[in-house]
Specification:
There is one protein chain. The chain has helices spanning about 80-85, 90-95, 120-125; strands spanning about 1-5, 10-15, 25-30, 35-50, 55-60, 70-75, 100-110, 110-115, 150-160, 165-175. By secondary structure, the protein is mainly β. It is about 15% helix and about 50% strand. Mean pLDDT is about 90; it is low at about 1-10. It is elongated and about 65 Å long. It has 3 helices and 10 strands; from the N terminus they run ββββββααββαββ.
């Protein structure tokens, strides 16, 4: 038996101003290990922007104007330093220095998945142990009370494209008996 809970309509945040698909071009993206070719969206926009000696920051607003994707671009070779600097105080300083200005933005189109092979050790560590023992008290699902949870799996998918951001979670509970 497998019970899966997924969001049937993944949350989709549309950009306040969508990127023109015709302006997307394959371009080198400078990764940690190597450069890779990636479809890269381009647009000239008026955006909230700030910069420091070792970074640039831009907020790309979503439709409705209440939320934005904050993009932090470290200067070449400064990723570790900038990553270490990002604290609530650093973000407050960046917030206070953000100004609307024209920005020529190039942003790779991307998607990634994050997941775990099993949440069982985490849930057991939080005290949920009897549900994984045979038999667990799952009598509400089965009168014989011979069921138990074999695994709990979770995965999230995030995608960014010309229209906006899509996020979708999925959780599976595998019941054995």
């Amino acid at each position: 038996v497998s019970l899966t809970s997924t969001n049937p309509a993944p949350p989709y945040g549309s950009w306040a101003t969508a990127f023109d698909v015709d302006q997307t071009r394959t371009k080198a993206f400078h990764g940690l290990a190597a450069d890779v070719q990636a479809p890269t969206m381009h647009a000239g926009m008026e955006l909230q922007y700030a910069e420091g000696a070792d970074y640039q920051v831009v907020d790309v607003p979503y439709d409705g104007g209440k939320l934005a994707m904050r993009i932090v671009l470290p200067a070449a070779g400064q990723l570790d330093a900038v990553r270490t600097d990002i604290t609530s105080e650093w973000l407050a300083q960046v917030d206070s220095s953000m100004k609307v200005r024209p920005v020529d933005l190039s942003l790779p189109r991307f998607s990634f998945r994050w997941g775990t092979t099993s949440l069982k050790p985490v849930l057991e560590g939080m005290g949920m142990t009897s549900a994984f023992s045979e038999p667990a008290d799952l009598s509400g699902m089965n009168a014989d009370n011979a069921l138990y949870i074999g695994a709990v799996l979770q995965q999230a998918v995030i995608g960014v494209d010309e229209a906006g951001t899509e996020a979708a979670p999925a959780t599976a509970v595998i019941v054995l008996g």
